[in-house]
């Protein structure tokens, strides 16, 4: 098996495992991000992450936590193919000589370049996922409960409705700018921190001898660095992608940021940030050193003799 085939296979397996383990956390994150600000005297549907989990399971069963997973699961191979291909090309351009290790700064640049390409492919997937996850968010008041109507029956139904009534293909790329604003700096931070930690643990630029435990720690902290750097952007992305097409609340990313901060303060862009770190911990246990855009040493070890 060639190195490219190993990378793509490991990336696909790692990415699928990450989705299966982390998707319930992502569902709760999007539900909390997307619920409307309650009018005075009323309370939001979800008081916090635990309450969102309880209500989701009570209303939809455990499967409700996995709502919207089909779209990202179906595209995980393509996303990893794009990630590794673009990043490989960036590495080739940045290397001073063939097979020379990249510096931390070069890893940052390579990660940012890969983020641009991933954002283009990820935007439609993210839109479909968020639309399905956000269904049912509502505001409740004394003696009454208002629940949003279920508009979509599944991922394909979301795509069909968007293509039919929201401007065709352009509608599927709603939120491209904030998605790019998440993927570019996020991947730059993640790959930069990952390489910096590996070099720190190895005591130099040769990191080939690092044990699996060091890679797990480096991968987990790198994933945390991704979300620390971009979480407010992710809140804005989700808000824009679930916004009503015919009666939009936001005119764009800047407008969404201003309105969220005005209505909820800076904390409105940091809703349930702790969920991300719980997700990263779960992913590390499942995937060893695979993380968000997976680092695939564990899977590659399994295929080393193929």
From TrEMBL:
Superkingdom of source: Eukaryota
GO cellular component, one term: mitochondrial membrane
Intracellular or extracellular location(s): Mitochondrion membrane
Protein name per its UniProtKB record: Mitochondrial carnitine/acylcarnitine carrier-like protein
UniProt cross-references to InterPro entries, sorted A to Z: MCP_dom_sf (IPR023395), MCP_transmembrane (IPR018108), Mitochondrial_Carrier (IPR050567)
Gene Ontology molecular function terms on file: L-ornithine transmembrane transporter activity
Record GO biological process: mitochondrial L-ornithine transmembrane transport
């Amino acid at each position: 098996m060639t190195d490219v085939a190993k990378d793509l296979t490991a990336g696909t397996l790692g990415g699928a495992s990450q989705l299966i383990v982390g998707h319930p956390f992502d569902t709760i994150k999007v539900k909390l991000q997307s619920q409307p600000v309650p009018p005075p005297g009323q309370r939001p549907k979800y008081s916090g992450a635990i309450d969102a989990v309880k209500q989701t399971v009570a209303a939809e069963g455990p499967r409700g936590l996995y709502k919207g997973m089909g779209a990202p699961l179906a595209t995980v191979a393509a996303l990893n193919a794009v990630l590794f291909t673009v990043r490989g090309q960036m590495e080739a351009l940045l290397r001073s000589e063939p097979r020379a290790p990249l510096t931390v700064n070069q890893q940052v640049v390579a990660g940012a370049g890969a983020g641009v390409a991933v954002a283009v492919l990820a935007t439609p997937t993210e839109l479909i996922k968020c639309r399905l996850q956000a269904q049912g968010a509502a505001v409740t008041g004394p003696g009454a409960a208002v629940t949003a109507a279920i508009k979509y029956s599944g991922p394909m139904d979301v795509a069909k409705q968007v293509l039919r009534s929201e401007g065709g293909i352009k509608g599927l790329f709603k939120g491209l700018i904030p998605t790019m604003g998440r993927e570019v700096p996020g991947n730059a931070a993640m790959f930069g921190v990952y390489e910096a930690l590996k070099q720190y643990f190895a005591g130099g630029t040769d990191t080939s001898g690092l044990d699996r435990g060091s890679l797990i720690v480096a991968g987990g902290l790198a994933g945390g660095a991704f979300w620390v750097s971009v979480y407010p952007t992710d809140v804005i992305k989700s808000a824009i992608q679930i916004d009503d097409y015919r009666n939009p609340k936001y005119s764009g990313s800047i407008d969404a940021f201003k309105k969220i901060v005005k209505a909820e303060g800076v904390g409105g862009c940091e809703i349930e940030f702790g969920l991300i770190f719980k997700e990263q911990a779960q992913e590390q246990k499942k995937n060893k050193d695979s993380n968000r855009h997976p680092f695939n040493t564990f899977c590659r070890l399994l295929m080393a003799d193929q």
